Amino acid sequence: MITTKPIEAAHGNVNTIKAASINSTKGKPTFKAKLGKYKPVLWLIPFIVFYYLFQIAPMVWVLVNSFLYEGEWTLENYSEIIDSAFILQGFSNSLWIAFWSSLVGLALAAILVSSLRHLDSKIRDAIVAFTNMSSNFAGVPLAFAFIIILGTNGAVTLLLRQWGILGDFDLYSSSGLLVLYIYFQIPLGALLLYPAFDALKKDAYEASMLLGANSRQYWMKIGLPILSPALLGTFIILFANAIGAYASVYALTSGNYNMVTIRIASLVSGDLFLEPNLAAAISALLMLLLAIITAVNQWLISRSYHA
Amino acid sequence: MSYVKVSQLAKSFGDVNVFQDINFEIEKGEFITLLGPSGCGKSTLLRCIAGLNQVDNGELWVDGENITDVSPQQREIGMVFQSYALFPNMTVEDNVAFGLKMKGISKSEARTEVKKMIDLVELDGKEKFYPSELSGGQRQRVALARALVVKPRILLLDEPLSALDAKIRKSLRQQILNIQRELNLTTVFVTHDQEEAMLLSDRIFLMDQGSIVQQGKPEEIYTKPVNEFVASFMGHYNLIEADTANQWFNLASQEKVAIRPESIYIREAGRQYGEHISAPMPATIVSHQLLGNVIRYNVKVEENELTVDLLNRSSERLMAKGSSLELMFNLNEIQPVRA
Amino acid sequence: MHNSNLTLHKTIVYGISGLLFIPIFATLLYSFSSSWGATILPDGFSLKWYSQLLTDPRFLDAFGRSLFICIASLLLAMVLVLPMIFVIFYYYPALDKVMNILILLPFAVPPVVSSVGLLQLYADSSIQLVGTPWILIGTYFTIALPFMYRAISNSFTTINLRDLVDAAHLLGASTTKAYLLIILPNLKKGLLASAFLSFSFLLGEFVFANILVGTRYETLQIYLYNMRQTSGHFTSALVMTYFAFIFVCTWLATRFSRGNQ
């Protein structure tokens, strides 16, 4: 019959909807205000025009023209690729080198970064600055540097040959290219992984030690699962970087090694046999390949641990 | 006529009504607080007064001029933001001078004004500092000086103290009040902290769900809440159902009544009280909390649990859980409140 | 931490860094040696390759062209990106998500692929583009875009954009003035850091330059490639000069990005 209750003071603990009171620029719905509302859009137009001309339009051209052969809609270009052992070899060479250089580059970068975290900050900063810089040492200058040291008469070649441990290494073959690719993948991988390793807190390591885990168990059960999204994400960037690379292999072999980017370029800018639509089809397949790999990678990331 | 007049102001974002039918008047030099919980529309109302948001309906008059459609640049209204909003690329001096520069006032003339303001907020010596080199309280004082240097017709303060720690809050609160009195500034202050509102304001406008539910002097609002919301927001009021209240206090109330914890007495043996005190009622202690200078008891009377405050004096010995006692109510302090 | 562990970590770090350093160091050594035949160590040291390089007018021209293209592309990128990014953050913050996808495209589409389309699209345009620096400036804008957008949007998230603009409005400034006097100066560090970073990236760009322009407008990278048949010492001096330049740019970039925090 009787109910009374003391009521809590409301101040200080009310965290309800404040959104409505903060953000809005909407004005009165008068004509002038409506016109004024769209004026800022004008500032976006120059950007959109340039982005369209130099990024979107070429991509669209490639996609559309990959289906055009002598002015007709067809899959002719694609069937030509499938029939050409030469182009397919370019794809398989590119995939092979992209996969292994990314894997080895990623592993070395991960080892470098995890060890780097144990050194004191001065050395760490210096090494980070150095990797940062050497990530710019790619393309033509890198190929030349490799010719100088690992070419037929390169200093390192001679040194290794003297020690008798070189075997049949040839810089201008697939194994030579692989070394070159790994070289430019390591600094890029390290730069991408460095922030991710911050997620590994020292206290998690100490806690696992106290709970009886050894170092290997810590890495298998805690370290790698925490890092796996970053490792997968970095792998895909390295892979895309390697499969799209053109300058280093072109400079090293003058375009004589069969890779997919070399094929594309030679079909549009070579001296003879220009076939831009076939180049477009190869390009489209290359983009499709990248898209599939990214999708698989995203799926793997979504299944792994989330920070 | 009042210095500031607001009539039938309304604002919504899409389907969400932020506030509606806001009417009030402010005298020159008055310190007004818009008080209310988060999301009650007080900050948006302040931004509409500043002209940063447009209103959907209603009019805003300052000093006999209708400023409803005047741009924020032309309104001559100063504002201090919760986030300080100091320009990080400018020194203290340049921040304060910015408004004068926009008005096209010459550098030499501006310099003396700026110096005066920096002295007023007691930041002399910090002129060449950048905001990142200052403490929170110092930053907020720069923001205050920057808003004041252009001699605004109204000063708006949007929760200016909430990002500061307790000690700085207290001193800055006093400083704001002193400056406001000294310059006879018409001020609108927004806060969700009722203690701050009580201490600073000439009048408080208490807002709930986009409406001003009660306006008046702090002590009026504190002692005479008009509805349950005000009673709960302004203090630790006990709410008692009309039936119970009528039976206990011999009233004929249609509405619930509210009574503050300090208006209930715990009776000690043999002590006599005045006529305005109700007859003693038997009660039991449920629990207690020590709140510094106050001991807050939860007590049970019949089926009702009430909150009772006693001053924490050594003469009042702490009563244990389950002890029996008697309660008396100050009949003058009983407020009927609407739901 | 155990001492043996620390030694292990040091060995790993110095080992891998050392491997990364060998080609750079060898090129440096090569560029300073008078001749280095089929031996492990050079015969003697000299500065003649550098003096030969720095007095070669063709090198200086190529370097000048590269500087022109890179600076022009960066200016274009700034002119396009700065107003765009303010409009997005101030008026349409929801578009930031769209932009974050758009800026991935220059990474996701290999330059070789883009150049196929560019070459065909603009080969017969009424204004001559292919074979001129202008097509490179347009393309390099897309390369610089991700760096700039990331850096500047980071700067935007560290300032309280809406409150700053509101405060400026109340003090009598127009939106344009607020942008120029208050927002822009706060973007300076992020802008400079991203500019130097993209600069060193653009200076090393070869694919677009080779396919779209080639020898018709010889940039540094094209010059470097064309010099492949000359003395290895000369190309080493060239590579090292280029690398020294990159070194300065990355150093400036990290300096500015550190000051930004």
What does this structure look like?
The complex is a heterotrimer of chains A (307), B (339) and C (261). Chain A is an all-alpha fold and 307 residues long. Chain A has helices at 19-22, 31-38, 45-65, 76-83, 85-116, 121-134, 139-150, 155-163, 174-193, 202-210, 215-243, 247-253, 260-269, 276-303; strands at residues 4-6, 68-69, 72-73. A two-stranded antiparallel ribbon of chain A has the order 2-3. The longest helix of chain A is centred in the N-terminal third of the chain and has 32 residues, at 85-116. Chain A is globular, with a radius of gyration of 28 Å. Chain A starts with a strand and ends with a helix. The model of chain A is unreliable at 1-29 (pLDDT under 50). Chain B is α+β, with helices and mostly antiparallel strands. In chain B, 27% of the residues lie in helices and 32% in strands. Chain B is built from 9 helices and 18 strands. Chain B has helices at residues 42-50, 92-102, 107-120, 136-148, 166-183, 194-200, 218-223, 228-234, 242-249; strands at residues 4-13, 16-26, 31-35, 57-62, 65-66, 77-80, 154-158, 187-191, 203-208, 211-216, 238-240, 256-259, 264-267, 281-291, 294-301, 304-311, 324-329, 335-337. Chain B is elongated. Chain B starts with a strand and ends with a strand. The mean pLDDT of chain B is 89. By secondary structure, chain C is mainly α. Helix content of chain C is 77%, strand content 0%. Chain C has 12 helices and no strands. In chain C, helix 1 packs across helix 12 (232-259), helix 2 packs across helix 12 and helix 7 packs across helix 9. Chains in contact: A-B, A-C, B-C. The interface between A and C is large, with 80 and 86 residues.
Question: Nutshell version of this structure?
Answer:
Chain A has 307 residues and is mainly alpha-helical. Chain A is built from 14 helices and 3 strands.
Cα gyration radius of chain C (Å)? 23 Å
Q: Choose one word for the global shape of chain A.
A: globular
- Sheet/helix structural class of chain A: mainly alpha
**Largest sheet of chain A, if any?**
2 strands, antiparallel
Q: Given the helix and strand composition of chain C, which structural class is it?
A: mainly alpha
Shape of chain C: globular
The separation of the N and C termini of chain A measures 54 Å
Main interface by residue count: A-C, 80 and 86 residues
- Fraction in beta strands of chain A: under 5%
Model regions low in confidence, pLDDT < 50 over at least 5 residues of chain C: none
- Topology order of chain A in helix (H) and strand (E) letters: EHHHEEHHHHHHHHHHH
Q: Order of strands across the widest beta sheet of chain A?
A: 2-3
| Tally of contiguous helical segments of chain A | 14
**How many helix segments of chain C?**
12
Low-confidence stretches of chain A: 1-29
Compressed to H and E, one letter per element, the order of chain C equals HHHHHHHHHHHH
Query: What is the number of E strands of chain C?
Result: 0
Radius of gyration of chain A, in Å, reads 28 Å
Largest sheet of chain C: none
